[in-house]
């Protein structure tokens, strides 16, 4: 028996007047997973996440969270959710501790306020009015409130925007701890590094649809690696090899190119084999490959490649999912 | 499907849906405590809540608007005036401002993502204002009892209906008005129509003046009039200038109670239509 996904969305749509912000999104998130939702501004991420959070009704399709319609049956699910919005405010005249205690009292199963403030590094600021907090501290207080109810399912909408690198890593540590404890997380972020660090799976949204989804390895694996070098002879003089002089490379994508500065660039799906061939070729000709830079594709590269694609069609609706 | 998801849940993490009854009280009281703290820390709001109603009573008294009723009646008129000002300025005006402020600082939006329902959030925000109005009334009764004569309290039930019903009505009207106010400052304007229309027609002084002719008929149906009518009936048995008995107060209360209920229902509809939970984008 397979477990039902904790989030199950099929063909979700959301309209604002005549503009359709969410145009048929499918998404399954299983218990204990962290799924990161990426996309440029205006891709429809927040509009979509609000449907899953139960803050707005879908104009079409099915949205199920913990087996319920999160909008119409909100009472049944809300006690199991923790939601950190991109923009939610505080009353500046309350202290950090007062804000946290007020929130805790509205929850059915609150964790201890002191523990939660400690976990986000705000224990020493407990008696400070919220108006005096820095932007990063407010963001951490946001996170404290979202995790206060020990949620089964945690929504994080750009949780580390405005945080310094140290606080960002601390937040990642906190999220990892919650994942280890079995929490399921749907993360929206602009930081690709954040998605690479935390996500089991990634869904990239574009113009209201999921344009690509899978593990980081899946998505990045589909992108070719890059090799770059400046070719010099034994005397240190730059030589510009003609493309025809280059060895045959097994995985090369497109034609290798040599730019005006003499820099050789190529893209390959078989980095190890082709790099080896290239090094042998240089060795046999007593050439040096200066500034040699060979690297696997990054998530950023995959993300940008998607944006270059003229029409990123929906690759996620696999037949077995559509039939479910 | 539901059995599937239940068996799939790791033991101990699945939890029951929040119970509606006791949970609602706990959530409202949590929000109310925070709101009370904010009231105490906001000097303008605190002044409006504590000082404004007694000052208005003093103003009207010094202008000689209280007529020449006997001591007990005069006491009832004063208590009613204080309750009225507390409801108008603390519950209606202050609450409208508070709701606009919470909305603009994105606090209402935050509360909405939590376990509290919209009604609970509204109630939690309103409780301190209503509590202040009740306290003002209690102090007014005490002051009148000491300095004049205690009101007769011909029908205390009607006093309760006036204060509780008036509070509920003004809370939903404040919610609706907050939706029409873009900023805290503009709430000073958007609250004026109700206050300006209601105060002359409210029959505040127990004198028959406002209850005669066409204007009197119109006045009967203005939102704050039933509060005054019920207060004066309840505290002094005063029905349009005549003093009636306990039994007669029920008959006389029918129209005001109906008007109060109608404005409350209208307020609920208006707040559903107009109240906003986050700033306009």
List the helices and strands and how they pair.
The complex is a heterodimer of chains A (324) and B (281).
Chain A: E1 7-16, E2 19-29, E3 34-39, H1 45-53, E4 60-65, H2 74-78, E5 81-84, H3 96-105, H4 113-119, H5 135-147, E6 153-157, H6 165-180, E7 184-188, H7 192-198, E8 201-206, E9 209-214, H8 216-221, E10 225-232, E11 252-258, E12 263-268, H9 271-284, E13 288-295, H10 299-308, H11 319-323
Parallel strand pairs in A: 3-7, 3-8, 5-6, 6-7
Antiparallel strand pairs in A: 1-2, 1-4, 8-9, 10-12, 10-13, 11-12
Chain B: H1 2-8, H2 21-41, H3 43-50, H4 52-62, H5 71-104, H6 107-113, H7 118-147, H8 156-179, H9 187-190, H10 192-201, H11 213-220, H12 225-236, E1 238-239, E2 242-243, H13 246-274
Antiparallel strand pairs in B: 1-2
Helix pairs in contact in B: 2-7, 3-5, 4-5, 5-7, 5-8, 5-12, 7-8, 8-12, 8-13, 12-13
Model description:
The complex is a heterodimer of chains A (324) and B (281). Chain A is elongated. In chain A, the strands form 3 sheets. In chain A, strands 5-6-7-3-8-9 form a 6-stranded mixed beta sheet, with helices on both faces. Helix content of chain A is 31%, strand content 27%. Chain A has 11 helices and 13 strands. Chain A is α/β, with parallel strands linked by helices. Chain B is mostly helical and 281 residues long. Chain B has helices at 2-8, 21-41, 43-50, 52-62, 71-104, 107-113, 118-147, 156-179, 187-190, 192-201, 213-220, 225-236, 246-274; strands at 238-239, 242-243. A two-stranded antiparallel sheet of chain B has the order 1-2. In chain B, β1 (238-239) and β2 (242-243) form a beta hairpin. In chain B, α3 runs antiparallel to α5 (71-104) and α4 (52-62) runs antiparallel to α5 (71-104). The longest helix of chain B is centred in the N-terminal third of the chain and has 34 residues, at 71-104. Chain A binds chain B through residues 1, 3-4, 31, 53, 55, 66-67, 75-80, 83, 85, 87-94, 98-99, 102-103, 105-109, 145, 149, 152, 182, and chain B through 1-2, 4-5, 7-10, 13-20, 23, 26-27, 29-31, 33-34, 37-38, 41-42, 102, 105-107, 109-116.
């Amino acid at each position: 028996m397979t477990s039902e996904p904790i989030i199950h969305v099929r063909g979700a749509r959301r309209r604002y007047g005549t503009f359709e912000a969410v145009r048929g999104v499918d998404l399954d998130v299983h218990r204990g997973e962290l799924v990161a939702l990426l996309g440029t501004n205006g891709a429809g991420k927040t509009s979509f996440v609000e449907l899953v959070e139960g803050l707005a009704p879908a104009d079409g399709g099915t949205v199920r969270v913990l087996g319920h319609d999160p909008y119409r049956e909100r009472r049944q699910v809300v006690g199991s959710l923790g939601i950190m919005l991109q923009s939610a405010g505080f009353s500046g005249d309350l202290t950090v501790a007062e804000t946290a205690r007020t929130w805790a009292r509205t929850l059915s199963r609150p964790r201890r306020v002191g523990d939660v403030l400690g976990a986000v590094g705000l224990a020493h600021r407990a008696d400070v009015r919220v108006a005096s907090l820095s932007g990063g501290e407010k963001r951490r207080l946001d996170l404290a409130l979202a995790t206060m109810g020990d949620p089964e399912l945690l929504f994080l909408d750009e949780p580390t925007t405005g945080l310094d690198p140290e606080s960002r890593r601390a937040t990642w540590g906190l999220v990892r701890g919650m994942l280890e404890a079995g929490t399921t997380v749907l993360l929206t972020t602009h930081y690709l590094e954040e998605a690479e660090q935390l996500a089991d799976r990634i869904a990239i949204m574009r113009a209201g649809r999921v344009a690509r989804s899978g593990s980081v390895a899946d998505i990045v694996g589909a992108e070719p690696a890059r090799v770059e070098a400046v070719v010099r002879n034994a005397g240190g003089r730059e030589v510009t090899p003609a493309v025809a002089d280059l060895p045959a490379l097994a995985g090369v994508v497109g034609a290798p190119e040599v730019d005006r500065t003499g820099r050789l660039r190529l893209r390959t799906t078989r980095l190890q084999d082709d790099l080896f061939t290239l090094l042998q070729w240089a060795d046999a000709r007593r050439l040096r490959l200066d500034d040699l830079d060979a690297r696997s594709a990054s998530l950023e590269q995959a993300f940008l490649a998607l944006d270059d694609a003229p029409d990123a069609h929906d690759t996620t609706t696999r037949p077995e999912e559509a039939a479910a | 499907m539901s059995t599937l998801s239940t068996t799939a849940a790791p033991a101990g993490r699945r939890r029951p849906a929040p119970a509606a009854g006791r949970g609602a009280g706990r959530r409202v009281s949590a929000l109310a405590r925070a709101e009370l703290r904010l009231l105490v820390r906001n000097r303008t709001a605190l002044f409006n809540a504590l000082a404004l109603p007694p000052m208005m009573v003093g103003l009207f008294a010094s202008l000689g608007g209280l007529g020449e009723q006997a001591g007990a009646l005069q006491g009832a008129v004063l208590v009613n005036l204080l309750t009225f000002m507390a409801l108008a300025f603390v519950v209606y005006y202050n609450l409208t401002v508070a709701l606009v402020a919470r909305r603009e600082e994105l606090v209402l939006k935050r509360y909405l993502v939590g376990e509290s329902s919209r009604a609970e959030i509204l109630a939690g925000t309103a409780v301190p204002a209503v509590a202040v109005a009740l306290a003002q009334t209690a102090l007014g009764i005490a002051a009148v009892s000491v300095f004049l004569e205690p009101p007769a309290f011909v029908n205390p039930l009607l006093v309760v209906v006036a204060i509780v019903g008036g509070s509920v009505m003004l809370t939903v009207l404040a919610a609706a008005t907050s939706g029409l106010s873009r900023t805290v400052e503009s709430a000073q304007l958007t609250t004026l129509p109700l206050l300006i229309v209601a105060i002359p027609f409210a029959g505040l002084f127990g004198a028959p003046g406002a209850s005669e002719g066409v204007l009197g008929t119109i006045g009967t149906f203005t939102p704050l009039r039933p509060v005054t009518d019920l207060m004066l009936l309840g505290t002094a048995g005063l029905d349009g200038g005549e003093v009636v008995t306990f039994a007669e107060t029920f008959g006389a209360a029918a129209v005001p109670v109906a008007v109060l209920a109608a404005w409350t229902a209208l307020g609920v509809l208006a707040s559903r239509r107009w109240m906003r939970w986050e700033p306009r984008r």
